[in-house]
Amino acid sequence: MTNRRQAISITAKSIAFGAGFMPAKALFAQNFPSKPIRWIIASGAGSSLDAIARAMQDRLAASLGQAIVIENRPAAGGTVATNEVAKSAADGHTWLLGFNGPVAFAPFLYSKLPYNPLKDLAPVVLTTSQPNLIAVNANVPANNMRELIALMKANPGKYNYASVGNGSSSHLTMEYLKALTGTFAVHIPFNGGPPAALSTAAGDTQILATVPTLILPQVRAGRMKALAVTGKSRYSLTPELPTVESSGLRELAGFEAIAWNGVLVAAGTRAPRWIASMQRLTPP
């Protein structure tokens, strides 16, 4: 299990890497694009990343005058997709929509990784950044974080928590929570957000921490209960939900776990005009 020092270190490294997403200052490539763009998504169809890419796909294609072909590669926590883009030709025709798992966390979680995010990838733009939402199956007898922690402490190993994959923010948010509170729940990783949310809604797993867009439909349907958000302040889309920190538990003072995702390309890619196009389609 990730201990407290490791969890804090990994979270800090993730924030630092996420802050690096900005347009490269290289010269514009003059003949770009000369063929369709491969946009490799480090998560499965129906995931929050997939939704972001598909919302931008047609407008980017119209702006660039070339087709944008989306390829979902959720394998190995997104590391397969990330490695493919890291090893691709640095011509701007292969993009990655990645997240903090394979980009920022993976170098600290795996003894061997086939790519080095800082050397092999160039960050282009941050697409979204948001807190995770911690939720439980509707039948779990906890209605807030204080009650959930008490339940986990009284029943070590009884409850399972789902995640969107090993090494994801969804996974490490719960490991961070466990490390700080001295609790234990069994980790059940899934290959993406939709199956993790369905598992918790069905009661096969009991707890899930992931982005709100995956959890809120299940909450509205009465199959899950949302307990808290993992940011430093309340989230604009769920203003009724408190933060984890506001639970009042001493060990959760300062708790924060943010999920972010963004577009990356192979290191050395010259910055073509699609950077400006993409910036116009992403929130400030």
What does this structure look like?
The protein has 284 residues and is of the alpha/beta class. The chain has two domains: 4-129 and 261-280, D-Maltodextrin-Binding Protein, domain 2 (3-Layer(aba) Sandwich), CATH 3.40.190.150; 133-256, Periplasmic binding protein-like II (D-Maltodextrin-Binding Protein, domain 2), CATH 3.40.190. Helix content is 36%, strand content 21%. The protein has helices at 4-18, 48-64, 79-86, 100-109, 117-120, 145-154, 169-181, 193-202, 212-220, 274-280; strands at 37-41, 68-72, 94-99, 121-131, 133-137, 160-163, 186-189, 207-210, 224-229, 258-266. It has a five-stranded mixed β-sheet with strand order 2-1-3-10-4, sandwiched between helices. A five-stranded mixed β-sheet has the order 7-6-8-5-9. Strand 1 (37-41), helix 2 and strand 2 form a beta-alpha-beta unit. Helix 1 crosses helix 4 (100-109). The two termini are 36 Å apart. The relative contact order is 0.21. Residues 1-28 have low confidence and may be disordered.
